[in-house]
Amino acid sequence: SLSSKLDRAFKTLKGQGSITEINVAQTIKEVRRALVDADVNYKVAKSVTDKIKDEAMGRDVLIAVSPGQLMVKIVHEELTHLMGGEKQDIQIKGDPAIILIAGLQGSGKTTFTGKLANYLKKQNRNVLVAACDVYRPAAIDQLKVLAEQVGVEAYTETDNKNPLQIAQNAIAYAKANNKKVVIVDTAGRLAVDEAMMREIAQLKEVLKPTETLFVVDSMTGQDAVNTAKTFNDRINFDGVVLTKLDGDSRGGAALSIRAVVEKPIKFISTGEKMEALDLFYPDRMAQRILGMGDVISLVERAQQTFDEEEARRINQKIRKNQFNFDDFLSQLEQIKKMGDIKDLVSMIPGVGKAMKDVEIDENAFKPIEAIIKSMTKEERANPDIISGNRRNRIAKGSGTNIQQVNNLMKQFNDMRKMMKNMNKLTGKGGGLSKMK
Ligand code: GDP
Ligand code: MG
């Protein structure tokens, strides 16, 4: 899956503690491959990943967040931004408002026409759907059935073979019958052809619709992008409807289409039922493309809570091998601020499920805090002076026992040793440093 690919991509970053030019370059290649696998057009994937790289360099990696997670966050932000940032609803104005539906045969136009009618009817609008696919008699019946199902009126003419006339008659009918929105369902072909293009271009030119929506099957991958471009070049549509996202489509088409035609995606269709219609939310689609689930909210939460200044300060101390019990305590407090630990752990991919039924003792921190707080100022700043006598006193003062104090001292010293080694290895002060 894409998720596991990204996971692999971020392996290079994990454990390194920082985002640097070198590990970003490796990761970015993997991210690009993953996006292409999710049906994102290669050129688009390249420009996306170039932006992501720029964005990633120079970001601080917070202590609570692995660089891999931070990368996921950056990728998510960038994808969301590229897909338009905010959701965009359909515009309804004019009397009546006219919505023209365009797209290839089988893309889901007629189904979407029914869904949109349903959607607008629920906003208390008086809707009429017009059947302008004159090539297949079954298409007219299909729309009639859907209209009936959602309780809106359908305008049909069985003997008329002129879609433009039918549409104009439907609009006249709407005006005479107090209909406020007319949705014009049109004919598509299996592939782009000139006759179809001429017909839809003429409908657009004459009807002057409030909105022209291009319907495209998300399962068709790269073809979806090419078709979108051809239609847009010819009819300059206002928005895109992405259908069949209930299948195993990975949604990459959304990103490519948006990037190639620079038109907002307005709706997504996720099934054959009339209710299976949603506005398009770029952040949700970015999440779908990434497939990283809750990592993003984990990173967000960590970023909100962790004080960047504090992270920088601690970072400096680690570099200089001066990490002490005051710093340790401050880190504990930061972690506690992040809220329910179990909640956080459950968001980590892979770990989340495994940990679901495991009880995490949130009181585990309490004795540690008590012990550190029973140390004198001097002891906290210079842990090396904490002798046996002092340990006895600290145990008594904190209501713990000598064993617990010794354990904490050992853990703390192991941690410092690790930091020291890390400093030696990297030669420039461990992985918690600022990138660049
Ligand atoms: P048109 O030729 O563009 O009018 O396409 P239709 O509306 O007739 O849809 C073609 C086929 O795709 C039909 O069998 C629909 O039921 C199906 N379909 C349309 N939208 C969706 C969707 O979002 N999900 C799924 N699974 N099927 C869809
Ligand atoms: Mg149809």
From TrEMBL:
<dbReference type="GO" id="GO:0008312">
    <property type="term" value="F:7S RNA binding"/>
</dbReference>
<dbReference type="InterPro" id="IPR003593">
    <property type="entry name" value="AAA+_ATPase"/>
</dbReference>
<dbReference type="InterPro" id="IPR027417">
    <property type="entry name" value="P-loop_NTPase"/>
</dbReference>
<comment type="function">
    <text>Involved in targeting and insertion of nascent membrane proteins into the cytoplasmic membrane. Binds to the hydrophobic signal sequence of the ribosome-nascent chain (RNC) as it emerges from the ribosomes. The SRP-RNC complex is then targeted to the cytoplasmic membrane where it interacts with the SRP receptor FtsY.</text>
</comment>
<keyword id="KW-0342">GTP-binding</keyword>
<dbReference type="Pfam" id="PF02881">
    <property type="entry name" value="SRP54_N"/>
</dbReference>
<protein>
    <recommendedName>
        <fullName>Signal recognition particle protein</fullName>
        <ecNumber>3.6.5.4</ecNumber>
    </recommendedName>
</protein>
<keyword id="KW-0694">RNA-binding</keyword>
<dbReference type="InterPro" id="IPR036891">
    <property type="entry name" value="Signal_recog_part_SRP54_M_sf"/>
</dbReference>
<keyword id="KW-0547">Nucleotide-binding</keyword>
<dbReference type="GO" id="GO:0006614">
    <property type="term" value="P:SRP-dependent cotranslational protein targeting to membrane"/>
</dbReference>
<feature type="binding site">
    <location>
        <begin position="185"/>
        <end position="189"/>
    </location>
    <ligand>
        <name>GTP</name>
    </ligand>
</feature>
<dbReference type="InterPro" id="IPR004780">
    <property type="entry name" value="SRP"/>
</dbReference>
<dbReference type="GO" id="GO:0005525">
    <property type="term" value="F:GTP binding"/>
</dbReference>
<keyword id="KW-0687">Ribonucleoprotein</keyword>
<dbReference type="InterPro" id="IPR004125">
    <property type="entry name" value="Signal_recog_particle_SRP54_M"/>
</dbReference>
<dbReference type="InterPro" id="IPR013822">
    <property type="entry name" value="Signal_recog_particl_SRP54_hlx"/>
</dbReference>
<keyword id="KW-0733">Signal recognition particle</keyword>
<dbReference type="Pfam" id="PF00448">
    <property type="entry name" value="SRP54"/>
</dbReference>
<feature type="domain" description="SRP54-type proteins GTP-binding">
    <location>
        <begin position="264"/>
        <end position="277"/>
    </location>
</feature>
<keyword id="KW-0378">Hydrolase</keyword>
<feature type="binding site">
    <location>
        <begin position="103"/>
        <end position="110"/>
    </location>
    <ligand>
        <name>GTP</name>
    </ligand>
</feature>
<dbReference type="GO" id="GO:0003924">
    <property type="term" value="F:GTPase activity"/>
</dbReference>
<comment type="similarity">
    <text>Belongs to the GTP-binding SRP family. SRP54 subfamily.</text>
</comment>
<dbReference type="Pfam" id="PF02978">
    <property type="entry name" value="SRP_SPB"/>
</dbReference>
<dbReference type="InterPro" id="IPR000897">
    <property type="entry name" value="SRP54_GTPase_dom"/>
</dbReference>
<feature type="binding site">
    <location>
        <begin position="243"/>
        <end position="246"/>
    </location>
    <ligand>
        <name>GTP</name>
    </ligand>
</feature>
<comment type="subunit">
    <text>Part of the signal recognition particle protein translocation system, which is composed of SRP and FtsY.</text>
</comment>
<keyword id="KW-0963">Cytoplasm</keyword>
<dbReference type="GO" id="GO:0048500">
    <property type="term" value="C:signal recognition particle"/>
</dbReference>
<dbReference type="InterPro" id="IPR022941">
    <property type="entry name" value="SRP54"/>
</dbReference>
<dbReference type="InterPro" id="IPR042101">
    <property type="entry name" value="SRP54_N_sf"/>
</dbReference>
